[in-house]
Amino acid sequence: MLVLDPVPRHVWQGFVEGAEVAAGPARSWSRVRALGADPHGVRDAVHCALELTARRERHGALRIAAGATLEAATDALAARDVSVLLCDADGVVLDAWAGGAFVTEARRVGLVPGSDWGEALRGTNAIGTALAEAQAVTVRGTAHWAQANHGLVCYASPLRGADGRIVGVLDATTFAGGHDPAVAAALLAAARGLEARLFAGDPATRALAALVERMQEVAVLVDAAGRAVVASAAGVRALAALGRTSLPVGAVQAALVAGRAVPLPGALGWQLRAEPLGPDGLLHLVVLAETRRAPRLPDPPRAPGVRRDERVAERLVRDVPPTSRAPRRRLPDPFDAVAGSDPRVARLRDEARRFARTDLPVLLLSETGTGKEVLARALHAGSTRANAAFVAVNCGALAPTLLESELFGYAPGAFTGALRGGRDGRVAAAHGGTLLLDEIGEMPPPLQAMLLRFLEDGSYTRVGESAERHADVRLIAATCRDLPRLVEEGRFRADLYYRIRVVRLGLPPLRERTDLADLARALLAELAGPLASPTLTPEALACLLAHRWPGNVREIKNALRYALVAADGDVIGPEHLPDDLRAPVTPPAGGASLAAVEIDAVKAALAAARGNVAAAARKLGVARSTIYRMLERARG
User: Fold this and answer.
1) Domain with 427 in it
2) pLDDT tens digits along 314-343
3) Which of 204, 328, 353, 393 could lock onto 303 through a cystine, CB 3.0 to 4.6 A?
4) Tens of pLDDT, residues 230-263
5) Alpha helix segments (H runs only) across 168-309
6) Are residues 430 and 358 part of one domain?
7) What is the pTM of this model?
8) Closest Cα to residue 342, out of 459, 507, 467?
9) In what order do the strands lie in the sheet with 270-277?
């Protein structure tokens, strides 16, 4: 990583005025000065909402991979007041997460979606300089070119796709006084994990993984951190016998360098050989064997589009006849994904299974974190539309101007930088399938009118054109808001509410379920993966049962993720749980209402966070908007 440490203010001032210096950032400073970057102010560098939509559309796979990779990391970084940014290869911010107390400063300096952080505009900064240098960069304080950014410390790493080309940048930024090498290390680890996910999601790589699964050898495909991505049947059995879900990175690297078998640390009598796959060694094919049977590394499988060494042959592809593939198994019941033995959950599954076969609109009314999207996906999978697309849109995560184009698309030439052929929105993408509108209670009134018109006859128009289009979709709407109350207050259209509430389904909050113990074990097994079998001690389970879980399933999943890392083994005790779960919580009095329980939990979390709403929301596993709504409800 290139580290540009802060310099005395007079050194920066002298360089700005024309003096030459030998300071660490001098190379970048010279480059940005030649580009005309202004050290005292930044030109308007925020793209319009429609152009941001177009950029997000072009980088859909990158954004999905980033969201999945960063889900757990952002909470930890937000606790450190660190903002995490995903940018495209031009340095334009596509998405931002976390931030904590840094959010206000991030907005002030322009670390927001749509903002351009290329060196030509912003001068020396982690995002633009990482792109210019094609390597990870730390920029601290006065090493920034723009004076407005001297109060920041930024860490960034370029992101490479399956073909090795830079497709974006991952950045973490906070106050200059919050510099911590651990954040830089976490950023690099997240970037490598994101690259591995991009590589694994590439069609050619998926073909490669399928071939590895059919290998006869004890073969394991591991990522750069040594984690098992996929394994042959013999590989799965070997890893299970060894009690491993990953292989030591040092041993894999040693085998790569030596070009021969090396001992597997901590496993007497076992050795491994390795072969790099993909750009920058994102994945490795590892073959394990017991010492008495030295492992022979087969010609690694080659899939079209994966750049490989000339030694790689096509033998494996030719030698695996179609009849050797595993027999097709009966598809599972999609409603098995709505896990739980609680009677209310069981009744919900039965009811949802019946209505899934119809085209009736469904409204999911449940608290945040209960698993509304899981239920929505099960409804789609159990319907006659299962072979068509399931498209989800979070109405609360997009600005009104973005939401319209996201839903209905835009015409050619609708704005500068628009795609030449325009863009078909999520409604068109869901044609023949299912459209989930999550957090529909956050939809602004003008969009409610457009949606109502679309639901009446399937017609709509794209932004910037008058030609009418049509789409056939089954609508599922979801919210944790009190929609009847919003209707009474005039904040949600009554006609739209009655149009979408034909079938109403709801998952019970976790604190009211009778199957918490079984659910916790099932979630733990799901999070650990098929190659591990962690268990909860009775004491740890007692802590989980005593907690109120205001964040519901999302909160318990985050707690179990934490415990898996903290335990670093197969047995999870109370000491491995997050701090607020280690001591059993006194359950509420029998007469306490659900609202009172929620408010008490919010007040306790706010007190513990000294009034910091973001920190309280992280503690509860809910969105900040949920905290504000609960407080508003308490005052009302």
Assistant:
1) 335-505
2) 333 333 333 333 333 334 578 888 888 888
3) 204
4) 888 888 888 888 888 788 888 888 888 888 888 8
5) 181-201, 203-213, 233-242, 249-258
6) yes
7) 0.47
8) 507
9) 228-231, 219-223, 283-290, 270-277, 262-263
